[in-house]
Amino acid sequence: MDERSALRRLAAALPAAGDDAAVVDGLVVTTDMLHESTDFPSGTTRYTAGWRAVGASLSDVAAMGADATAAVAAYAAPTLDESELDAFLDGAIDVCEAVDARYVGGDLDTTGEFTVATTALGETDAPVLRSGANVGDVVCVTGALGRTAAALRAFDAGESGRGNDLFRFAPRVASGVALAPHATAMMDSSDGLARSLHQLAEASDVGFEVSWDAVPVHDAVDDYAGDDADRRAMATTVGEDFELVCTLPADAVDGARDALSVPLTVIGDVVDGGVRMDGELLADEGYTHE
Amino acid sequence: MDERSALRRLAAALPAAGDDAAVVDGLVVTTDMLHESTDFPSGTTRYTAGWRAVGASLSDVAAMGADATAAVAAYAAPTLDESELDAFLDGAIDVCEAVDARYVGGDLDTTGEFTVATTALGETDAPVLRSGANVGDVVCVTGALGRTAAALRAFDAGESGRGNDLFRFAPRVASGVALAPHATAMMDSSDGLARSLHQLAEASDVGFEVSWDAVPVHDAVDDYAGDDADRRAMATTVGEDFELVCTLPADAVDGARDALSVPLTVIGDVVDGGVRMDGELLADEGYTHE
């Protein structure tokens, strides 16, 4: 059973789960576990790890259109080194402050592999689910895609300063709150744009027709991309960018943009069925978290 | 740096943490990470693991005198086996139902060692901290101690059915809520009675004089204890029993008992300084989570 099958199983068993976060009486809660071998390339500082791990959960709160209130983290490492723990806590606290949430503590443990489990909390009276997209809506993304793909190339190239900078993304909490009154469906792009579109399509029982030329590509991608196919893969299938992917009525785009402090780009339309880019079927491939 | 030093460091950095759980605007949140090598002896079923891991976080909510509302878990294992995951989820859901909370989902991941991170949420207008004990109060425990020590002996003896039964404790959420109006200080006994008394003493700047004869010992202890010293160690230093240890004015004990559905036993008095059992200093030893 791969993780997606297991997550579907978990979602089926639990009516409150299955979206980016669970919502119980207006309280939003989401949890993630990250491991050194799969989530923190060699060169990732503990400050960046704290920022990114807590940020990933804050992004799930943002994807519900909810305001983030607090986060906790459980930290496990082969040894509890004081300076590493301090750096991790600084990163966790700073990313919470960046979205006006509070880091309120956690748990510590020793284990064979550096592992972090983060939980973020939020609140909303009207969560934006993945299931509300309507044919005729447009589909948009915040910010630019490919930032994490570029970071991974930077780490591979030994440019760990650049890798760390790119790895510390800004969770789109304010954007999610601002989009909530306008968006019909929303999720974050943690599995990559292609997979996110497929997940929204499945949840909303619709299709998408998007244009590659319209996709906003992060500047750093051009520093590492080989050819155009590579550039496209970096922006659409590597994922872990934690931007928001949402649908909204075309006439709501201007109002939404006015409420946002980051770019909102229309990349295509919600259609009857099928997920296509420039008229061709877009494969459901991306980052399967393992 | 051992875990207690690290936790103190974390508590010092974060005003909202440092008790059994953090409290933010009436919302209680607590997180724990457990690992197969340190927390789940050979023979522990995944059902029991789900029950116990989520139960440990619910116990931290109970220790604040708060009502538990919801829990999530992040589950990581070398392979995502369907029947193991189902059993884990059943245990997680059942322990939540046992305390009228909701299990609302989680995260899945593969990693080298079976690892679970759980987060529980609760709510309270008046959390009971560790720091409110007054000289002249009495100190009490709920239920009986040594249950987990007996479970570990059962697992060691290959009696895994018994071990699993004993490992699935009932989180004292209803007891915590019932004690909250009476208790001046409270925590759970997850580090063992001896260490819990030292932690309450430090937080409240008081001492304790307790009587070993008064300590309620779980029936199963007598099936595994060697001599009286062993019996005492099983009940006071092994820990992980998840009972509540609390202080309250002596004249409040009867009222508290009436509100509880489990036994509440007075084991001693809050005094000026020093933690003593039968007049002798009680060593600050117990389970240091690693």
Per DSSP E runs of 2 or more residues, the count of β-strands of chain A stands at 12
Assign the structural class of chain A, choosing from mainly alpha, mainly beta, alpha/beta, alpha+beta, or little secondary structure. Answer: alpha+beta
What best-fitting shape of chain A do the alpha-carbon axes yield? globular
Output the CATH homologous superfamily of the largest domain in chain A: PurM-like C-terminal domain
Number of helices of chain A: 11
Characterize the main sheet of chain A.
7 strands, mixed
Q: Helix and strand succession of chain A? A: HEEHHEHEEEHHHEHEHHEHEEE
Oligomer state equals homodimer
Strand coverage percent of chain A: 15-25%
CATH class of the largest domain in chain A: Alpha Beta
Q: How far is the N terminus from the C terminus of chain A?
A: 11 Å
Binding site for Mg(2+) 3 (chains A, B): 20, 60, 188
Keywords (chains A, B): ATP-binding, Kinase, Magnesium, Metal-binding, Nucleotide-binding, Thiamine biosynthesis, Transferase
EC number (chains A, B): 2.7.4.16
Binding site for Mg(2+) 4 (chains A, B): 20, 30, 60
Your description of this structure?
Chains A, B: Pathway: Cofactor biosynthesis; thiamine diphosphate biosynthesis; thiamine diphosphate from thiamine phosphate: step 1/1. Chains A, B: Mg(2+) 4 binds at residues 20, 30, 60. Chains A, B: Residues 135-274 form the PurM-like C-terminal domain. Chains A, B: Mg(2+) 1 binds at residues 31-32, 107. Chains A, B: Keywords: ATP-binding, Kinase, Magnesium, Metal-binding, Nucleotide-binding, Thiamine biosynthesis, Transferase. Two copies of one chain form a homodimer. Chain A has 290 residues and is of the alpha+beta class. Chain A has two domains: 3-123, 2-Layer Sandwich (60s Ribosomal Protein L30, Chain: A); 138-281, PurM-like C-terminal domain (Phosphoribosyl-aminoimidazole Synthetase, Chain A, domain 2, Alpha-Beta Complex), CATH 3.90.650.10. In chain A, 37% of the residues lie in helices and 25% in strands. Chain A is built from eleven helices and twelve strands. Chain A has helices at residues 3-13, 36-39, 46-62, 82-98, 147-156, 160-167, 173-179, 193-204, 221-224, 228-236, 253-259; strands at 22-24, 27-35, 67-77, 102-110, 115-123, 138-142, 185-188, 207-210, 244-248, 264-271, 275-277, 280-281. A seven-stranded mixed sheet of chain A has the order 7-9-6-10-8-11-12, with helices on both faces. Chain A has a five-stranded mixed sheet with strand order 1-2-5-3-4. In chain A, helix 3 (46-62) runs parallel beside helix 4 (82-98) and helix 5 packs antiparallel against helix 6 (160-167). The longest helix of chain A has 17 residues, at 46-62. The first copy, chain A, is globular, with a radius of gyration of 18 Å. The termini of chain A are close together. The mean pLDDT of chain A is 93. At the A-B interface, helix 1, strand 2, strand 3, helix 4 and strand 4 of A face helix 1, strand 2, strand 3, helix 4 and strand 4 of B.
